[in-house]
Amino acid sequence: MLNAPLSFLSDDLVGYLVEHVANLTYWEEALNNLSLADPVFTSFCQKYLFRTLALGGRRGTRSRISKKLTQVKNILDDNPLFANQVRKVELRIEHKQNAWLLQNPSGHDPLRTDAVDALTFISVFRLLANSPMPPHELHLNVAIYPIEDPVLLVGRLSQSFFSQTLTILHLTECQNVPLTLFLICSRLKDVLIDSVEAAKEGYDQYPEDQCFGRESPALERFNYRDSHAIVKQMITPPPRFQTPVVLWSKLRVLTLCPHEANEMALLQPILDAACPTLEELFLTNLHVGPDKQLPLTGLVNLSRLSRLRVFSLYAKIKYDAPGSAVLRDINVVLGTIPVSNCITNLFFDLCILGEREHPLRGCLDEDWEGICNEAIRISFGKPLELDFEIVVSGKFERGRGKKNELYVSIMEKTTSLSDHPNICTHFWNPTYWDHGLGPFPRGQVRGRCRR
After folding, report:
1. Within this chain, do residues 414 and 371 fall inside the same structural domain, yes or no?
2. What pLDDT is recorded for position 361?
């Protein structure tokens, strides 16, 4: 129990303390301990402890998952109010026969031809449906196995609260994913697709009410990687669909990998559809497999993005390749940004790599002056946050000292920026770790510098 003056803390201050504890690395253990320290913390900690409901498990057999589901159901049966705290549901399925998880338990299922006795996800969904604010976020991971019965999956979700509440959908390592999964959730705003394969069969077996006659969700955030087939279908659906699967006309944030040719081929059609609204473009996702720097000229045109504020790019430069034109290629893309623009942040994450021991030759010949000139042109006197995050990777004759020499040489090539006080330039390289300074988080936007 707390003693005065801690026992007299206001709710706002208690909530503030708990919020910071929830941001710790081992937040779950810390919140569990804090919730038991004094009743004043309990309800505040439960907000975070019960926010995410994880169902399923790694390499879980049917019996193991059923046991986990039974534990969750017993907790919610004993205290139904816990369901009010759940905002996100994570379904992780790592076995081939997974359709039973979405069947109705204890009796005949109208969507199936067999009876089901085991406890399933549906049992837990029914308890969550009693909440005045059912969960609005769903993360689905089916690992190496395809979704066994995609028609059942879509049918079950369309009958659940998710069809009315779902705004955030993350699909990771899922195979046989149907487009109808997006169309049944009209309020969907935020979608992440990572290593996802489209449904293998056609859509003739899907009910008509899943394929058309529904309001298409208008996405605001879209993040994709290694999933070009399903994204291509989202842009141009099969003939079975009489309405768009998703609308791009309200998209504000787009994230993808600049090193995947198939993904980059789909970028411009999305940019064209989202040109009135797109505010942030992150070409920063890491590639699945060997990295190869793609030429961006011809793949990226930013001229029509009238509201674009943030452009962030992850690029690779070979330091042992004299005449390398990676920065020149980037400068061509930046050149498509008109002088009259809304740009507030430019972020360049540059990885300099190679196999030889003489890194200065190639990368210092890059067009560093040109990229500075483009930043000055884009700024045109207005405030601009410019980030250079540079990491050198490779073998060096003199090790760390050679890398430090390169970092200093690159900074010296950007001195023209110092004549423009409206441009706040931020450099980061691994030597900053010695001063306790880590890199700026990927995918986030730096606020205006107050210097």
Report:
1. yes
2. 60
Do residues 258 and 237 both lie within one domain? no
Question: How do residues 395-438 score in pLDDT, each as one tens digit?
Answer: 654 556 677 888 888 889 898 998 999 999 999 998 888 888 88
- Domain encompassing residue 426: 254-451
pLDDT confidence of residue 354: 66
Across the range 147-173, mean pLDDT stands at 90
**Same-domain check for residues 91 and 134:** yes
Is there a contact between 249 and 274 (Cβ–Cβ < 8 Å)?
yes
- Checking if the pLDDT of 2 tops 70, the result is no
- Give the domain-ending residue among 247, 281, 305: 247
pLDDT digits (tens, 9 = 90+) for 117-127: 567 778 788 88
Say yes or no: 283 and 176 in one domain. no
Q: Which of 82-96, 236-250, 364-378, 412-426 has the lowest mean pLDDT?
A: 82-96
Note whether 177 and 269 are same-domain residues.
Answer: no
Over residues 111-115, the mean pLDDT reads 43
